[in-house]
């Protein structure tokens, strides 16, 4: 049975769950006891309950599976994916926001689009990049090859603010 085509199904084509690994490190300033930053992703990770399962730890730091988020690829953003794949190395942008306690940062969303990642950098969100694993590179590259359409650039002609015969006077 197929579902009716809607706007969502026309735009979003591919998804992949990604486990977000976050490093919690003792702060180096008097203003923050801890700092959080994403360090990697786990392709195909299942849900984590409770969030924050410790994977590795050392003196003053821990790496934990903070959340599993869905990477969504959209046909309308293949240009952003192409730009990202042209970088060395390709990256994923992880957006983090303050958690319920106000001190901890928790993963909010993840994207492979350079354009979307840049858009989140304007505002209060914390946006960090992590290297894109080979499995995700293959998925994004296949998606772009399948769905990218070059859109020719057309320069718009500006409208004049007044008529040539100056009837306004």
Automatic annotation (TrEMBL):
Superkingdom, taxonomy of origin: Bacteria
Record InterPro entries: DUF3305 (IPR021736)
Name of the protein in question: DUF3305 domain-containing protein
Species of the source: Azospirillum lipoferum (strain 4B)
